[in-house]
Amino acid sequence: MTRTTRAWLLAIMTTLLPALHAQPAFAHTTTASAVAPTTAPVLSVSTERGGVGLLWTAVPEARAYQVFRSADGTWTAPPLARVANRFFHDRTAVSGTTYEYRVAAVNRAGSGPLSNTVSVTPIAPPEGLSTTAGDSQLTLRWLAAAGATSYD
After folding, report:
1. Residue 69 has pLDDT above 80, yes or no
2. Confidence class for position 9, pLDDT limits 50, 70, 90
3. Do residues 148 and 97 touch, judged by C-beta distance below 8 A?
4. Of 87, 100, 105, 106, which one has the greatest count of Cβ atoms within 10 A?
């Protein structure tokens, strides 16, 4: 190694090395340790054409929500669904079967507490709709839907 090369390397080391130690090549910020959500969502339910509609309140720490369903009082894993929004439409619900639902907020640290439990029995819409025109009126007729007590 020549004298010029050594002088050049020494200049680089004395100039650049302190700067490299002061400024890391990548930024790494440390935040407070992540924790699982601490708030339970508040769940509401409605029957909808072709299934059950679920809607719940937002949980600030949530990155997603897990939806759980039970048809016999037994809650099983895995969840029925994992969604990023605050609603879910269960199109697999069978008319006349009573279901219970719960939701939990989740993030990288884990799952939060479960929501309240809601219960619903979806009923299929009536079939065989027919109309008869009359004098200033229209009469509707349909086949009764199993389990229906009224029609809106």
Report:
1. yes
2. low
3. no
4. 105
Rounded to an integer, what distance in angstroms lies between the CA atom of residue 76 and that of residue 99?
A: 13
Q: What is the DSSP string of 51-92?
A: EEEEEE---TT-SEEEEEEESSS---SSPSEEESSSEEEETT
Output phi, psi for 102, to 5 deg.
-145, 155
State what percent of residues in the chain have pLDDT above 90.
Answer: 46
Q: How far apart are CA 71 and CA 140, in angstroms?
A: 34
- Give 15-28 pLDDT, tens digit per residue: 555 554 554 444 44
Note the pTM of the prediction, 2 decimals.
0.67
Look up residue 39 and give its amino acid.
Answer: T
Q: Calculate the alpha carbon distances from 115 to 5, 54, 144 in Å.
A: 70, 12, 35
Rg (CA), the chain: 31
